[in-house]
């Protein structure tokens, strides 16, 4: 067994830990691992080029930018905030938990591309969340706003991840089934997808509780500011 | 017929436009970065077709292009262009346009949803409107175009204004946009170089696996750790299954394959929430949302990941050896 290619992993760990620019770190790691595994330079270049262009779907989100940019210029975020401020019963926790549920249900049906950081979080969920947080704590500073946006993005990720595994025709389930078929164990996709349900429920409960705790933290800060005033 | 390749050409056109605009503004490094990337996107189909036919040269040139991007990336300063409208102007526009602004924004998820659900039925004679593979993503690309046209109509501005705004956002995201592709490519290089097999060998050689619970813990934590390193649970799964799951847990300790597979994969998903290597979920959103800390999203979801892992592992341990 050739252990030298593991140095590529070390390049990644050191590079990320020292906060170097991630792009060259990743490329250097690929070159190190490839060369130490004995690939020739032409083969390695071809492998790098082919792997890169075969992953082009990962840049698809940039196509949302013109429409979102134009709408933001026309005041989309300001409108989302003003509208949110008028909805008395929609608290921050209800907004985020509602979004989590919707995102998870859509992913359960295999519709993961429908929502996301570019499609829904930046133009809609984040500004609405900021307005909802402002109803609790009127003077949000820059750090608070960034934390709120991060929580919104995290909620989006968790909803997607722990919904998509329940969908039978999507990558994860088919990968598991394919692996077992290769090794002589026959399973139906449904039998696998069913066992993702307990975690889907657990993930929903855990993230909902954390959202609620986050809201309570804001409320407590608001209360203590009021007491001091 | 609309295919995912059309979306790639659209991206290539947008990237080349961004490069050209940066060139005109005198930002040479930004211009070079987006133009190289745009060329890689535009030529992607040709490169893959030539590789499949046994001609490696285009792919090798693409490989050099990737290295060129790596050299250019540190030179891009995250210079957010000044917004060309004041907050006051945007607020006035928001008041004037009201809920009409939501329309185009909601069109993106809505059109994607419709194409994903019904795209397969749109057949005129023998002519299918959408290609079967990657239909949802093709739908997303179409939805973006429709939303842009609708947004231009609602805001009464030319469509090109939207493309210019998009370029402003793209420059603000900068090189972070590239990371998901690079990390996916790195995953493939790692697989070809035998990194996964080497880690699995070390894990099985040095860790206690005689006891069923200990073996299960090694398997679950291995899924998390391996996903953190590779940035993707799909890369970790076959390695951990072949190393520990199948020989030890299923064959020796009689674990239930469906439960082990499904819940083991979900342990890996918890790792995805923790790693900068999963750039498309963790670093790109941080850049899109203009967080100063690139690890802000990971920080926000880390404890969720820990608790979800703990509950999944407990359920797996209770159920898998029934």
Automatic annotation (TrEMBL), chain A:
Pfam hit, one: DUF969
Alphabetical UniProt keywords: Membrane, Transmembrane, Transmembrane helix
Segments passing through the bilayer: 53-71, 192-213
UniProt xrefs under InterPro entries: DUF969 (IPR010374)
Protein known as: DUF969 domain-containing protein
Taxonomic source organism: Rhodanobacter lindaniclasticus
From TrEMBL, chain B:
Tree of life domain: Bacteria
Name of a matching Pfam family: DUF979
Membrane-spanning ranges: 30-49, 55-76, 106-129, 135-152, 172-191, 211-237, 258-279, 302-321
InterPro entries referenced in this protein's UniProt entry, alphabetically: DUF979
Protein keywords: Membrane, Transmembrane, Transmembrane helix
UniProt-recorded name of the protein: Permease
């Amino acid at each position: 067994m050739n252990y030298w290619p593991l140095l590529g992993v070390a390049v990644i760990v050191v590079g990320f830990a020292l906060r170097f620019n991630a792009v060259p770190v990743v490329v250097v790691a690929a070159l190190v691992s490839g060369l130490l595994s004995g690939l020739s330079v032409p083969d390695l270049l071809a492998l790098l080029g082919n792997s890169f262009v075969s992953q082009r779907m990962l840049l698809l989100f940039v196509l949302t930018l013109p429409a979102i940019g134009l709408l933001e210029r026309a005041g989309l975020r300001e409108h989302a905030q003003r509208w949110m401020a008028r909805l008395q019963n929609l608290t921050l926790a209800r907004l985020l938990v509602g979004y989590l549920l919707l995102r998870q249900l859509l992913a359960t049906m295999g519709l993961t591309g429908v929502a996301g950081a570019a499609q829904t979080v930046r133009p809609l969920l984040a500004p609405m969340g900021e307005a909802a947080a402002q109803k609790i704590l009127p003077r949000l500073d820059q750090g608070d706003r960034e934390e709120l946006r991060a929580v919104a993005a995290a909620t989006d990720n968790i909803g997607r991840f722990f919904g998509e595994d329940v969908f039978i025709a999507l990558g994860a389930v088919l990968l598991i089934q394919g692996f077992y078929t290769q090794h002589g164990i026959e399973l139906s996709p449904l039998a696998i997808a069913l066992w993702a349900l307990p975690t889907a429920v657990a993930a929903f409960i855990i993230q909902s509780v954390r959202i609620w705790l986050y809201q309570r933290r804001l409320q407590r800060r608001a209360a203590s500011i009021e007491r001091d005033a | 017929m609309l295919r995912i390749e059309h979306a790639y050409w659209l991206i290539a056109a947008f990237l080349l436009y961004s490069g050209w605009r940066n060139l005109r503004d005198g930002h040479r490094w930004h211009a070079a970065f987006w133009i190289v990337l745009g060329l890689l996107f535009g030529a992607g189909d040709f490169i893959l077709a030539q590789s499949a036919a046994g001609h490696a040269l285009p792919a090798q040139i693409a490989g050099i292009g990737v290295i060129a991007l790596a050299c250019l990336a540190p030179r891009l300063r995250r210079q957010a262009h000044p917004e060309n409208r004041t907050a006051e102007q945007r607020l006035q526009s928001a008041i004037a346009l009201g809920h009409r602004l939501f329309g185009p924004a909601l069109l993106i998820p809505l059109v994607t949803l419709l194409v994903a659900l019904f795209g397969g039925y749109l057949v005129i004679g023998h002519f299918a409107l959408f290609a079967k593979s990657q239909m949802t993503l093709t739908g997303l690309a179409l939805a973006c175009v429709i939303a842009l046209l609708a947004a231009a109509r609602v805001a009464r501005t030319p469509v090109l204004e939207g493309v210019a705004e998009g370029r402003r956002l793209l420059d603000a995201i900068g090189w972070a946009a590239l990371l998901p592709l690079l990390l996916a490519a790195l995953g493939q290089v790692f697989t070809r170089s035998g990194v996964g097999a080497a880690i699995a060998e070390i894990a099985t050689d040095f860790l206690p696996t005689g006891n069923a619970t200990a073996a299960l813990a090694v398997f679950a934590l291995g899924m998390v750790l391996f996903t953190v390193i590779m940035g993707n649970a799909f890369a970790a799964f076959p390695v951990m299954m072949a190393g520990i799951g199948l020989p030890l847990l299923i064959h020796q300790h009689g674990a239930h394959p469906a439960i082990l597979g499904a819940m083991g994969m979900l342990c890996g998903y918890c790792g995805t929430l923790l790693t900068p290597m999963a750039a498309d979920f963790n670093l790109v959103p941080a850049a899109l949302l203009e967080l100063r800390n690139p690890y802000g999203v990971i920080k926000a979801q880390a404890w969720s990941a820990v608790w979800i892992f703990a509950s999944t592992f407990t359920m797996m341990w209770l159920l898998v050896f029934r």
